[in-house]
């Protein structure tokens, strides 16, 4: 089964035994480590007798290409990516609030870059940071525009705080094993996400060709319910992301994979922020 997060669907971030993420640490009769053939220091490899003898004589000499990914790597790359989003959002908020056409263009380009990175075999830091900058410009301009509407002052800040609260709550729930990522959990999230996206697309088509709010998924009571479902789905995606990062570290994934983890976490947080901002706008609007 493929990961729910498209950036984790490439080599090493999928497994054949049921749920999204890295393969579980190798056990007797279990699946092999996907990094054993590409990273000589990954767990689960099959070193030769000569390699074993050399390993006992001297500690392994890591290089930037072979050093295993650590939590510090993931935190650092995620901080850089989110920092770039914030920088882009600042530019969009200050200079493009009244130029939504340009901001929407930046958002579309960011979407294209996200898809390009999703299908690349290796993470590209330049591509990921470019996506983050353009996505930030779009989010900043959109947030500034909404903030200037009647009854909407402060709505973007509330959405930011709400996104942070969802992240912390899900991290605590995951670390305390209140939320457990299993095959059934992942299947449920993927099916629910597919249904959510399809309903959103149908609603958009009705808006374009029928006018108004389409099927009503983005206003009134139904819009509130739909927004809550979107936020909950984003929170569930975070649990999948945490599991993928945790398994990647346990597996000895190469250091460069930390960029992919940062990219996936950024995509999920952007999803949550957008749904949170939409929900707050409905609650505070007429």
Q: What is the CA–CA distance across the termini?
A: 43 Å
Strand content: under 5%
**Strand count:** 0
Q: Give the class from helix and strand content and strand pairing.
A: mainly alpha
Q: Give the % helix.
A: 55-70%
The average pLDDT value, as a whole number, equals 81
Report the uncertain regions: 6-31, 54-60
The helix count comes to: 8
Order of helices and strands: HHHHHHHH
Which features would summarize this protein structure in a list?
286 residues; mainly alpha; 8 helices; globular
Gist of the model:
With 286 residues, this protein is mostly helical.
Overview of this protein structure:
The chain is an all-alpha fold and 286 residues long. The protein is 65% helix and 0% strand. It has eight helices and no strands. It has helices at residues 49-57, 71-95, 100-119, 125-147, 155-175, 183-210, 220-251, 257-284. Mean pLDDT is 81; it is low at 6-31 and 54-60.
Break the fold down into its secondary structure elements and pairings.
Layout: H1 49-57, H2 71-95, H3 100-119, H4 125-147, H5 155-175, H6 183-210, H7 220-251, H8 257-284
Helix pairs in contact: 2-4, 2-8, 3-4, 4-8, 5-7, 5-8, 6-7, 7-8
């Amino acid at each position: 089964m493929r990961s729910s997060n498209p950036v984790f669907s490439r080599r090493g971030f999928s497994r054949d035994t049921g749920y999204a993420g890295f393969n579980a640490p190798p056990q007797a009769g279990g699946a092999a480590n996907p990094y054993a053939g590409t990273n000589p220091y990954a767990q689960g490899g099959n070193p030769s007798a000569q390699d074993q003898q050399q390993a006992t004589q001297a500690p392994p000499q890591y290089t930037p290409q072979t050093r295993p990914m650590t939590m510090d790597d993931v935190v650092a790359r995620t901080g850089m990516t989110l920092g770039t989003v914030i920088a882009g959002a600042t530019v969009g908020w200050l200079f493009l609030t009244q130029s939504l056409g340009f901001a929407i263009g930046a958002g579309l380009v960011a979407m294209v870059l996200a898809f390009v990175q999703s299908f690349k075999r290796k993470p590209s830091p330049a591509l990921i940071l470019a996506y983050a900058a353009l996505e930030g410009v779009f989010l900043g301009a959109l947030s500034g525009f909404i903030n200037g509407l009647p009854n909407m002052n402060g709505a973007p800040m509330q959405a930011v705080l709400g996104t942070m609260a969802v992240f912390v709550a899900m991290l605590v729930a995951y670390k305390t094993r209140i939320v457990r990522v299993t095959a059934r959990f992942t299947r449920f999230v993927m099916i629910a996400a597919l249904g959510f996206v399809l309903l959103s697309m149908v609603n958009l088509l009705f808006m374009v060709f029928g006018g108004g709010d389409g099927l009503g998924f983005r206003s009134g009571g139904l819009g509130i319910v739909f927004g809550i479902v979107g936020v909950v789905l984003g929170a569930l995606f975070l649990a999948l992301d945490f599991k993928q990062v945790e398994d990647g570290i346990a597996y000895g994934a190469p250091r460069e994979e930390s960029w992919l983890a940062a990219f996936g976490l950024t995509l999920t947080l952007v999803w949550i922020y957008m749904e949170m901002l939409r929900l707050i706008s409905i609650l505070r609007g007429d």
